[in-house]
Task: structure prediction
Amino acid sequence: KSSKNKYVSYFTKKNNNNIALFPGQEILISEAVIPIVNGLEKGSILTINGSRYPLVEFDFGVSPDFAFRAISTLVAHGFTPIIAHPERYGFIAEIPDSAWELHELGALLQINKGSPAGVFGSDAERVAGIMLSERIADFVASDAHSPYVRTPFLREAHEWISENFSIDYADHLLHKNPLRVIKNETVHPYR
Result:
């Protein structure tokens, strides 16, 4: 069974692991935001585990004005949007301070695990490095597409952040903040 604020637990016979699955979806915002807000409020568009946290993404060529308006609208309706892979958006690559502006509007920032390693190109690598160095990244996620390419495994990302920044920051990005979202608790910036 799954319902709002509940997870579905699966026991896998292959390796005897419990896997907790939480409802949610990545929401592409490419046009009007109000229909998305209405869907979020009605529950036809999912936040993460029924929380106030929708995971949103934009087209990679999105204009900063549209992104800022969309985030402001979501925040004005009581949501705390988590922006997927902001390091890959053109306007942030051009002006990395735009990430700070999105953060100040009330958005949280989730970088892809492959970005600091250059998997998505030198711009994404550079911007992810800035976001991690300035501690404005709130999460690191897999952006998994399969068990073989862009995998869901995050151990290497945790190790890399631990070695290049700190274990505490890696735990913050990969454990503490995600747990806060699942529990619908306030996500705190790392300081």
Observations:
- The first strand starts at residue 8 and ends at 12.
- The chain has a mean pLDDT of 88.
